[in-house]
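[Discussion] Sanity-checking designs against the backbone

I'm trying to build intuition for which residues belong where. Below is a structure token string of 205 positions. I'd appreciate it if someone posts a full sequence so I can compare it with mine line by line.
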């Protein structure tokens, strides 16, 4: 037996105590200035978050660069940018100096390598200075002169230390030459005694 359609959707066919809910659908909001200050601030905060979210989705989906800057009703600035607001603004104002994110990454990697090389060089210089200081302290504690140092220590000297040693050797050579000339210029007392003795013997004869 067929049931009439009028009975299928009639209120009498529904369970007792229940009424059919009618949906009003999405309510259209008039786009106009919100006069209430509190409501305006709340709406701005919600819409701003939604705007930044959509901007982030756009960059993720399309790989584009984007910058969004807005001021709240209270004159507070908010911004969102990918890769950054400054980068996008510079690209707009100075297109000839634009650098792509890949170029930025390569440049940053090169800068990090250069900084690491400088750090390694500084550490090598620091270690060399520590070794020189240690040798100097050992010489002072043992009352040793530089010529008493073992040959291994001389081989480990730096350029500055070798230059100082070279200067000291030159000064030592000059002093030795000077002393030698002074000794040569002075008469030998033994020869003088022999000459005096020979003169005395001749006078006796």
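Best answer:
Here's mine. Compare freely.
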């Amino acid at each position: 037996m067929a049931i009439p359609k009028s009975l299928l959707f009639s209120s009498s066919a529904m369970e007792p105590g229940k009424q059919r809910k009618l949906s009003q659908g999405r309510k259209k909001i008039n786009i106009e200035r919100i006069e209430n200050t509190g409501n305006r601030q709340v709406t701005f905060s919600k819409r701003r978050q939604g705007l930044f979210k959509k901007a982030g989705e756009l960059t993720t989906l399309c790989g584009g660069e984007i910058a969004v800057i807005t001021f709240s009703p209270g004159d507070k600035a908010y911004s969102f940018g990918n890769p950054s607001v400054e980068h996008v603004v510079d690209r707009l104002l100075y297109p000839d100096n634009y650098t792509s994110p890949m170029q930025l990454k390569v440049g940053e990697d090169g800068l990090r390598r250069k900084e690491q090389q400088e750090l390694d060089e500084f550490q090598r210089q620091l270690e060399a200075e520590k070794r020189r200081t240690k040798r100097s302290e050992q010489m002072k504690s043992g009352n040793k002169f530089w010529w008493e140092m073992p040959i291994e220590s001389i081989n480990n000297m730096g350029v500055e230390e070798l230059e100082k040693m070279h200067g000291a050797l030159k000064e030592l050579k000059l002093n030795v030459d000077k002393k030698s000339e002074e000794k040569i210029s002075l008469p030998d007392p033994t020869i003088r005694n022999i000459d005096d003795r020979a003169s005395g013997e001749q006078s006796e004869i």
